[in-house]
Design a protein that fits this description.
Shape: globular
Strand content: 15-25%
Strand order of the largest sheet: 3-2-1-4-5-6
Number of helices: 5
Radius of gyration: 15 Å
Largest sheet: 6 strands, parallel
Structural class: alpha/beta
Oligomer: single chain
Distance between the termini: 13 Å
């Protein structure tokens, strides 16, 4: 199967945008699943890659994005999932974690053939990232209790599309293993 990488999408966020109120409700529900995935991936020595929007700050880097999120009004949604010293970081500017980023190259260098997606927004960035992973011939797993949405109906439809059209496995975070992630 190859190595598994955990991809944490857009969770370093200040929540100062349209739809933030609806999103934050869902993030609070998804946060324990994200935390559990991070714990298990780290314990298995699986690569953990945070891929985060730069929110139009074109001179920003991962440290600045994290600092801004932690100093924002909703730091409580970021503090439990702060990247550790081993975490990798890719900055993105559009919906897909792959579009215009070096993520595909990084995953190749890591020997990752399977990605576990968690984060936000299910019906936007998670959906487009799952499609881009699928067309790159990666096995895709979406942690259903570790993704957050703005619109529940669209999120449910997006999950069905990922499963049907992209062969994504939909599993709760507790059923996702990283054991195969250990390097030889």
């Amino acid at each position: 199967m190859g190595r598994t990488a955990l991809i944490v999408i857009d969770m370093l966020n200040t929540y100062e945008h349209d739809d933030a109120e609806a999103l934050m409700v869902s993030v609070r529900t998804a946060l324990p699943g994200v935390e559990a995935l991070l714990e298990r991936a780290r314990a298995a020595e699986a690569p953990v890659v945070y891929v985060n929007d730069n929110f139009g700050r074109w001179r920003s880097h991962h440290g600045e994005i994290l600092d801004v999120a932690l100093s924002g009004p909703h730091a409580d949604l970021v503090e439990p999932i702060v990247p550790d010293a081993e975490s990798l970081f890719v900055v993105k500017a559009r919906h897909s974690v792959f579009y215009g980023t070096p993520l595909a190259y990084l995953l190749g260098q890591l020997g990752a053939r399977r990605v576990v997606l968690c984060g936000q927004v299910t019906e936007q960035c998670v959906l487009y990232s799952a499609l881009d992973a699928h067309i790159r011939h990666l096995d895709v797993v979406v942690a259903t209790d570790a993704v957050a949405h703005i619109d529940a109906g669209l999120a449910d439809a997006a999950l069905r599309m990922m499963e049907r059209n992209m062969a994504a496995e939909l599993r709760p975070s507790g059923d996702i293993g990283f054991e195969e992630a250990r390097s030889d």
